[in-house]
């Protein structure tokens, strides 16, 4: 009784708590919003140049981009296309916030008159030209642009908006070009730089060197400690930039049909065969019951090889099958034939392309093709000659076989040659097309017969019972894998499971190794509540269930040796090897490099590099080693360096001889070569602008 009284006394508080909870549940998203009463900005998709990108604003722009894409393509955007649209919207924010500040400071813009000139004036943009080029003539017609613009107000609103967006992109591209051109024209190569480039390419030297590669010292004899790795990382921070990533191990449980599923499908097909045999409208019955779309009238060019072989034995009114094509089983009701307006034929060819556009190249190709045709007329094997000579690699692998094709499917000279022949056999002349010279053999005569076939295709798929059973197995595995040790133990119990590793997955990843559509797994791995050595719930992707375990994390703000362990270990190990080799070599004296190498013992090589340049020099065993080349070219003939460490090992260099570059008065070619590197400005400018804008990208937390 006392308890009931206590509840009554506090009922008002309870009602208030429930009421507040309901309000927060119903309108919490609006109250908390992007900038909640509890602080923080949980709805920030990112930040660019100090400007916060709100999720709602980003999603609105993304929806507009998606709607425009779907209106233009006439279909829904796939996951990959939606990912591309998200990237486009994000890049537009970078233009609006990061680049625009740069443009405004420099006074760069595109005037209305300039935009008109780009669209319909004397300097039409290539994008406009491409969009309004006549597909029949391949010629750009400015009048079609003007006509389109005059009619623009009569078009649907979404098309008007699409044009406005198109014009906006033209203006943005133009101002971006202006910005990048400032950097290009501001890049200047001096005469001294051009002369230095000339010397590096033209001065020749013959070098002799003793080389002890790092690999000559066995890795297992060199111990590398974590302390050494940490010391190396601390001294080379600029070379090893941290980034957010995750490393996981995972097992998969393929969702595949069982024997019971196969039996069920077989019984279903038998039932459908009876229905198809008695259906008053067999084409409608087939269309309703088929898992794959099929047509009613088929030419030979539209049939699979299996159906082509079987159709000749079909009796009108009969139901035939099932026939298997991959994982799909077909039954066919045959309704006889009728004549088509177009013919179908089967042919093979050998294509000889001209190696160039000159008349001599064309004549050479014709001669080669004529010689092959003569060999075939003399009894040579067509398939063998096609495999060895045809430039059409896809058909050459099949002995030149093109399969069945309809009249008009090939380029006109080829089609005319095939369909002007009444029977089969080798066409006795070369057929020239834009692709080259063809030697053609008709392997099945032309026919305009169409076969009436009502087809039902049923694909073998796992039943829900099968899916449930496989999911239960994966779920049990997940439940039992409470730690990395438990995960490994569970794998040992099931020999069918194979552990796969995905290293350093970025937060924006959509695929994991070869596994597609793995975005949910990536988001789980990056979730703040996911700890290392924690197993995941069951995920479904690509017709398989997946259970993963998080085995490693990296943080862009706090890189550790584990983030770069393999690379760091190689560097430190080679440093230790270099010290060991240098110490041993430095204690050896000898009149020649060969004598020093003999005293050093196994691993020491003496080689020559004859008549090489500094710019393109290559050492036989050491490969491209700029340090060694620089040391060698810095010597005088007959002189020798002390022991030094190169990129891939330890050296002693001698210069045997040197041929100076001849004096020239014009370095313009070398100046132009260096100047061409300024075309990298677009990439470098983009990187610099993004870095200056301090871009923070949180999209992976939302998508």
TrEMBL record:
Name of the protein described by the UniProt record: Periplasmic chaperone PpiD
Cellular localisation: Cell inner membrane
Keywords: Cell inner membrane, Cell membrane, Chaperone, Isomerase, Membrane, Rotamase, Transmembrane, Transmembrane helix
Membrane topology qualifier: Single-pass type II membrane protein
UniProt lineage: Bacteria, Pseudomonadati, Bacteroidota, Cytophagia, Cytophagales
Domain PpiC residues, every copy: 342-444
Provenance organism: Runella salmonicolor
Family: Belongs to the PpiD chaperone family.
Pfam family, one: Rotamase_3
Predominant subcellular localization, coarse grouping: membrane
PROSITE patterns, per database record: PPIC_PPIASE_1, PPIC_PPIASE_2
């Amino acid at each position: 009784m006392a308890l009931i009284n206590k509840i009554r006394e506090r009922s008002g508080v309870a009602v208030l708590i429930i009421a507040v909870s309901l309000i927060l549940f119903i309108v919490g998203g609006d109250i908390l919003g992007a900038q909640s009463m509890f602080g923080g900005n949980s709805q920030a998709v990112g930040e660019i140049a100090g400007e916060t990108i709100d999720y709602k604003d980003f999603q609105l722009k993304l929806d507009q981009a998606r709607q425009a894409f779907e209106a233009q393509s006439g279909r829904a955007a796939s996951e990959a296309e939606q990912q591309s649209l998200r990237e486009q919207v994000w890049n537009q924010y970078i233009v609006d916030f990061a680049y625009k500040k740069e443009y405004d400071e420099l006074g760069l813009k595109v005037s209305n008159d300039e935009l008109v000139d780009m669209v319909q004036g004397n300097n039409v943009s290539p994008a406009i030209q491409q969009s309004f080029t006549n597909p029949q003539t391949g010629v750009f017609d400015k009048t079609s642009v003007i006509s389109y613009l005059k009619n623009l107000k009569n078009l649907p609103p979404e098309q008007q908006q699409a044009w406005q967006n198109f014009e906006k992109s033209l203006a943005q591209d133009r101002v971006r070009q202006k910005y990048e051109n400032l950097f290009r024209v501001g890049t200047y190569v001096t005469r001294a730089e051009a002369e230095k480039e000339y010397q590096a390419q033209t001065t020749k030297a013959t070098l002799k060197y003793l080389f002890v590669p790092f690999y000559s010292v066995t890795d297992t004899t060199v111990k590398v400690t974590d302390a050494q790795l940490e010391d190396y990382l601390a001294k080379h921070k600029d070379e090893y930039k941290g980034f957010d990533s995750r490393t996981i191990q995972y097992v998969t449980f393929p969702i595949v049909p069982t024997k019971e599923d196969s039996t069920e499908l077989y019984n279903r097909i038998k039932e459908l065969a009876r229905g198809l045999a008695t259906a008053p409208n067999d084409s409608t019955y087939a269309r309703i019951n088929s898992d794959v779309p099929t047509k009613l009238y088929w030419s030979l060019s539209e049939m699979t090889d299996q159906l082509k072989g079987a159709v000749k034995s079909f009796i009108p009114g009969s139901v035939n099958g099932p026939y298997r094509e991959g994982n799909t089983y077909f039954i066919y009701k045959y309704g006889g034939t009728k004549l088509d307006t177009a013919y179908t034929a089967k042919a093979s060819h050998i294509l000889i392309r001209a190696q160039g556009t000159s008349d001599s190249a064309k004549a050479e190709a014709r001669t080669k093709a004529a010689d092959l045709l003569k060999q075939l007329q003399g009894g040579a094997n067509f398939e063998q000659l096609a495999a060895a000579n045809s430039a059409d690699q896809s058909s050459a692998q099949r002995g030149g076989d093109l399969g069945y094709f309809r009249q008009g499917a090939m380029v006109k000279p080829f089609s005319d040659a095939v369909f002007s022949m009444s029977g089969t056999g080798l066409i006795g002349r070369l057929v020239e097309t834009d692709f080259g010279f063809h030697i053609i053999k008709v392997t099945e005569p032309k026919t305009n017969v169409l076969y009436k076939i009502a087809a039902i295709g049923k694909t073998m798929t796992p039943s829900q019972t099968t899916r449930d059973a496989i999911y239960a197995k994966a779920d049990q595995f997940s439940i039992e894998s409470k730690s990395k040790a438990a995960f490994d133990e569970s794998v040992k119990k099931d020999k069918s499971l194979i552990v796969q590793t995905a290293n350093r997955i970025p937060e924006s990843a959509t695929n994991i190794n070869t596994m597609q559509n793995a975005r949910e797994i990536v988001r789980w791995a990056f979730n703040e509540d996911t700890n290392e050595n924690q197993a995941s719930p069951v995920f479904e992707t690509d017709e398989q269930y997946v259970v993963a375990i998080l085995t490693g994390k990296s943080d862009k703000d706090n890189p550790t040796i584990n983030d770069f362990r393999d690379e760091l270990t190689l560097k430190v190990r080679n440093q230790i090897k270099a010290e060991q080799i240098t110490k041993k070599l430095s204690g050896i004296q000898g009149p020649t490099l060969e004598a020093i190498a003999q005293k050093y013992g196994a691993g020491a090589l003496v080689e020559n590099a004859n008549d090489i340049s500094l710019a393109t020099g290559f050492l036989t065993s050491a490969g491209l080693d700029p340090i060694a080349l620089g040391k060698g070219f810095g010597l005088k003939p007959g002189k020798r360096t002390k022991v030094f460490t190169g990129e891939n090992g330890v050296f002693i260099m001698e210069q045997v001889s040197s041929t100076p570059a001849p004096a020239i008065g014009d370095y313009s070619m070398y100046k132009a070569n260096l100047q061409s590197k300024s075309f990298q400005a677009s990439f470098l400018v983009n990187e610099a602008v993004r870095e200056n804008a301090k871009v923070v990208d949180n999209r992976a937390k939302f998508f």
